[in-house]
Amino acid sequence: MPGRIAIARTVTSRPDEDGAVTDALLTPERRSKKVGTLPDQARFVLAAVRRCLPEDVAATPGANARVGVSLGTFHGSMDVAERCLRTMSGGGFREVTPSWYATGLPNATAAIVASVHELAGPNLTMLGYQAGIEAIVMACRQILAGRATAMLAGGFDLPSPHFAARLAGAAEYDGTGTIHAGAGLVWLRPGDAGEPAGATVVGWSQGAIGTGETDRDVVARLIAAASAGPPDRHPAVHLVRPEGGGAVDHLAATAPIRLVDAIVGNGEPGLHALVVRGFGASAACLLVEKAV
Amino acid sequence: MRSLAAITGIGVLSPAGAGEEALWRGLTGGEDRRGSWPKRVLSGYPIDNVVPIPEDLWKTTSASAAHPGNRAASLADFAVGQALAQAGLPDRAGLRVGCILSSTTAGVEAAEDDVLGLRPVPTPSDLDGSVIVPTGARRWTGPTGVISTACSSGLVAPALAIDALAAGEADAMVAGGLDVLLEYTICGFNALRLAAGDRCRPFAQGRRGVVLSEGVACFCLEPLEAALRRGARIRAIVTGYGMSCDADHVTAPNPAGVARAVAAALETGGTAPGAIGGIFAHATGTQANDATEVAALRTVFGTGGLPPITAVKSVMGHPQAGAGAMSLLAAVLALENSWLPPTAGLDELDPALGGIDIVTGSGRALDKRTLMVNAFGFGGNNCVMTVADLDGVAGHRAGGA
Asked: What residues of chain A lie within 8 A of the CB of B144, using their CB?
């Protein structure tokens, strides 16, 4: 096993059934002194971050040089690309706002979180449907390598209506998907969770799905890799992948939300394996021990 | 004890051509490769001035056909294949090999084409930035992923790959960075007033900013001892790296944040500042970046003066997530050729930067065996790496750093 990392705090954020991202889901601040105008995506994540940060971290800005942020997103910079191109074909270049590009890059949200809360440790952003769990894996590695004393990690997405509709109509969702915004965040620190009902990351793996591999093959291979050999216990398996059938999907936040809800929050005591496979060949696995 | 990662394979496709020889000729030749963006006419922007991969090159390399409509994936496929082949690991039998790439534009080419109605409705895979990790016949058994930390990405990906090696999660890793020229990037740099209408002139008085470009550079990385045991050709050794986040402004670089990354790279590598024979600077050619970078370097190097500095972007433009990887590759080639390539187009050094030693003309002989490579990005994401050849590493081990 590569080490033990405590999931010390968790938070999820998602809209009601209608999918609308209301003001209640956004941080009330519309501007930051250092960033300028905050895009809705950043306001959405900042509102969740505020609920996830431990009080001592939130209360002592400037003292967090070794606290980092690691986030995953599927949507990346599609939103800013769409906005730039639609503006160019509408009002033209004069109507393009200078800050759009830099605050719309895939890493901008993690950077804005770091700026607002002065978290100057490793700052990472992963891309893809499985990126939320990959970001948690990357965060665990940074802690184990001694580069961070704690990491805020997870996944988020707030897709534009255009691309949410594009994805919902795709074959991967049987043409009837429901794509909503979402954020699933965890606060990670070294060691065991300790407190009752806590959860601890005890292993992880990443890899690509080979031609002809079934879900069962992928799950077995990734669990074995995460366990550094055949697992001595059979974990409860939670497989996350894009699928139709009426389930609401939150893109890169889907798997972290499942981690928070189904394992840390409501999981049975014992070993759990969360495996996520994306639209492409990438997959990731997190082994989590839920305390009694 | 620090872990040393050997670079045993290289793959690159740049505006100068396919392969490392083309890149080296381009860096030492200093040819001006600028033009307008070849994909579409951009009449609505103040500046359309980029260093593109020539369309002829796209058509004549295997990169062109691999993924129609997804040039980022094509670049990745090409360079990853080259790096694995050069490392002698094409089938990777019995080894756990992973792949961590980086990009700011992966998946967005399809999004742009969709918004403009240029192609049929994209599939989710077309829009997924992580699909640039090549698949097909290859099955990665080590960590995979696509990182995006703006223009520091190309160094961050190899750094994270080295972390995976050090953690024992893989026997070898392929890592690097890439980006393709897209309209929203050109739009963004125009809107920020950072796009230069002339040549990119890092450190020059009157420099006007960035000239965007595109390309890929990838590396096969292995633990040094393991690479030596299997008799691999050691192209160079990554001796240390440092990452930092400014936690400050989204676009304006912060000298303290950059200095933290520089200091961490020296510290983790056990490298004394005096051992650095040259710096491959991030050097975008903007007023703020170049001044901040020099100030940060001075903070760390102190009163002993700065090593010679050179700027790859003066010739290759700024390939965003490809930038750090292309600078790292230039440093590897500099070590092998014992030659620092020049900063092109530097007609008059900015006096506000003080007395810094910029490599100009046809370049300069390299007299030390360790180099520093810098990459910084919007969002205050900084990464700095030190790289040496075997002689340089032997010097470190003998305490002669």
From this structure: 206-208, 282
**3-state secondary structure string across B202-259:** CCECCCCCECEECEEEEEEEEEHHHHHHCCCCCCEEEEEEEEEECCCCCCCCCHHHHH
Tens digits of residue pLDDT in B256-289: 999 999 999 999 999 999 999 999 999 999 999 9
The closest CB to that of B130, out of A36, A105, A278, belongs to: A278
**Mutant choice from A33, A96, A113, A127 vs B, greatest count of B C-beta within 10 A:** A127
Domains, chain A, in order of start with CATH, read 5-190 (3.40.47.10), 199-290 (3.40.47.10)
Tell me phi and psi for residue A183, to 5 degrees: -145, 135
Helices (H), chain A: 40-52, 55-59, 78-89, 99-104, 108-117, 131-144, 161-168, 215-226, 254-258
Q: Residue B280: its pLDDT value, please?
A: 98
> Is B148 in contact with A128 (Cβ distance < 8 A)?
no
Q: Are B147 and A211 in contact, with CB atoms under 8 Å apart?
A: no
Rg (CA), chain A: 19
Distance, in Å, from the CA atom of A249 to the CA atom of B323, rounded to the nearest integer, reads 35
Assembly ipTM: 0.96
DSSP A99: H
The residues near B195 (Cβ < 8 Å, ≥ 6 apart) are B46, B47, B49, B186, B189, B209, B210, B211, B212
Mutating which of B187, B258, B318 best tests the A interface, going by the most A Cβ atoms within 10 A? B187
Inter-chain touch A102–B247, beta carbons under 8 Å: no
Q: Can you give the pTM of this predicted structure?
A: 0.96
How far is residue B380's CA from residue B144's CA, in Å, rounded to a whole number? 24
Amino acid at B341: P
Task: Please say if B249 is a catalytic residue.
Answer: no
Contact A128 B129 (CB under 8 A): yes
> Which among B140, B146, B379 is the nearest to A128, CB-wise?
B146
Q: What is the pLDDT of residues A91-113, one digit of tens each?
A: 999 999 999 999 999 999 999 99
Burial (CB count within 10 angstroms: exposed 0-12, middle 13-18, buried 19+), residue B65: exposed
Q: Chain B closest CA to A28's CA: distance in Å?
A: 20
- Number of neighbours of residue B67 by Cβ within 10 angstroms: 19
Closest Cα of chain B to A94: distance in Å?
A: 9
